[in-house]
Structure formats: C-alpha cells, structure tokens
Write a structure and sequence with these properties.
The protein contains four helices and 15 strands.
C-alpha cells in the first residue's frame, strides 16, 4: 500500500506534531496528522478536517419524543475548539453532515453556533455538502461557511480531494466521512471497547464521526484497509483485517 505511517517527531517536515497524533504520508508526499480529537491536520496547508458533526441531531430526536441527552452542541463546539487549539489551523473543513435535519436547525442551535463563529471570525470555514446537508438546508449566512459540492480540491498543487462520501478518484487521495467507522479493541481481561477509527485504503482516508451524538458502524470499512483507532489521547495503528 503506497502510504507510510510515521511517529518520528524529529522529522523536519513533521516538526511539532500535536500530542497523541499519528502521521501518515500520502503517495504524493503530503504529510497528514490523524488527531485523537477525531480530526485530520494538514500542516502544510494550515487546514483541519472533521466529518459528520450532525449539529441539531439531539434536538431532532427530542422533537420526535425520544429521551436523548442535552449538551451535545456545547460538547461538539468545545471539541472543535480543542482541534483549533492544538493545530493553529487557519482553515477548518467540514466533510459533510454539518447539520442533521431541518427540524434540528432551530434558533436554539444558532444561538450557540453564532457566538462560537464570532470567536473564530478570522478562521476560514468550508462545508463540503453531505447527504444530510442537502435535506437540512444551508447554515445561515452569519456563520460564514463557504459551501461546496464534492469532490472539492482544497489546494491546486496537491492531488487531495475533500468529499463526504468515500469514493475512489484516480490520481487523487480522497478525504471523506459518512461511514462513522469503529473497531473493537480487546483488553487482557476479556474486556473490550468500541473505538472510533480512521480508515485508509484504495486511495481513501475515511474519518470517524466527529459529532458527540452519532451512530457508529463496526462493519463500515473493507477488511483490507488499515485502521487507526482513536483511543483516549492517542491514535494507534491497527493491522488490516482487525475487527
């Protein structure tokens, strides 16, 4: 597989990595960091990527009479702040499903998102439309999100495409979400836990769902793909074929 994983923090091109991050080098030579905050950091472009935040999902479920937790929006925003703090990103890219549903895009949501956006007024933000975004509608103009369709080329000089749906594109590496992948980690005492993971294979890098209230899929990735488990404070490579 034409990608290498590297945890040597002394490499000049990968200097000062975020704590707990795992580095991969794409076939084109581009270095990316997989972050324990469930994000990807592209240091050369000062760009961070997250997928599947699903803002408003809990509110949508509550409107349908489901007893789901409060506070998921505040949690998502706090973790986005953590991504920005550890990277110093100048551009934040949402790989689809920024919103969950039209019914969740209510005033209460914007009352939290708009002050957060004002705190990051200098930060460029782009949303690559996902399937939920198409039904939920676009965020209000004050959020200042540039909205694009997939596949989107973030940088003209690098064959890296930002998408929501995983897809193979000849000559390019695709960053995507949509699948919400997880894997099972087994402990020495016959205990186990289900961890979010990144998946790499066939020229595609799939991110775990970022949202605090999202479903997961343990069988989302082909068995031949390399997985990178998101554990507390660290991203760990897991061999292909691991469940």
């Amino acid at each position: 597989m034409p990608v290498t994983a590297d945890t040597d923090t002394t490499a000049p091109s990968l200097a000062s990595p975020p704590a707990g991050a795992h580095a991969i080098t794409l076939p084109c030579g581009t270095a990316l960091w997989l972050l324990p905050q469930r994000a990807v950091w592209w240091p050369a472009a000062r760009m961070a990527f997250v997928a599947d935040v699903h803002f408003g999902k809990a509110a949508t479920f509550r409107r349908a009479g489901q007893p789901v937790p409060h506070g998921t929006t505040a949690d998502n925003l706090a973790r986005l702040d953590a991504v920005l703090a550890v990277t110093g990103a100048e551009h934040l890219v949402f790989l689809g499903d920024f919103l969950h549903a039209r019914s969740g895009a209510a005033d209460a949501l914007w009352q939290q998102l708009l002050p957060w956006r004002k705190r990051h007024a200098q930060l460029q933000m782009t949303l690559v439309r996902g399937n939920h975004d198409l039904h939920a509608g676009g965020p209000p103009p004050p959020l200042a999100l540039a909205i694009v369709n997939e596949p989107w080329l973030p940088h003209a000089d690098t064959p890296l495409l930002a998408c929501h749906h995983p897809q193979a594109v000849v000559g390019h590496t695709v960053l995507a979400g949509h699948l919400h992948p997880t894997l099972r980690l087994n402990g020495p005492g016959r205990d186990s836990l289900r961890a979010p993971c990144f998946g790499w294979g066939e020229g595609q890098l799939v991110l775990p769902a970022f949202g605090a209230f999202t479903g997961t899929s343990p069988a989302a990735l082909p068995g031949t793909w390399v997985r990178f488990a998101v554990t507390p404070g660290r991203v760990v490579a897991v061999p292909a074929g691991f469940s």
